[in-house]
Amino acid sequence: MQITLKNICTAKNGVTSVLLIIIFAVYTLALGYFAPVLSLFSAVSIGLMWAVLTITFEFLFGHFVAKIPFSELLNDYNLFKGRIWILIPIWLFILPIILYYFYR
């Protein structure tokens, strides 16, 4: 396999995504210990809010502040190109639900 900048950036983003998933899991488990989610409806609402706010922030900040075109931002969500960033909002959505069942 030839080492290219594209391969390095894809690998770096993959490592970053996995580390972020782990950090969110640890933070949410600690938060759930002190402030448990009391109902499944609350868990789904919290997860949906986290996911929507994350995606909204990324697209608004990325486009209007960092001046990244929407097409490039959307590229981070393409699993077929090896981009696994889509797992972050999915994880943020299901994490409160897992937490609800974990501390129930």
UniProtKB/TrEMBL annotation:
Segments traversing the membrane: 12-34, 40-61, 82-103
Keyword terms, alphabetized: Membrane, Transmembrane, Transmembrane helix
Listed name of the protein: Uncharacterized protein
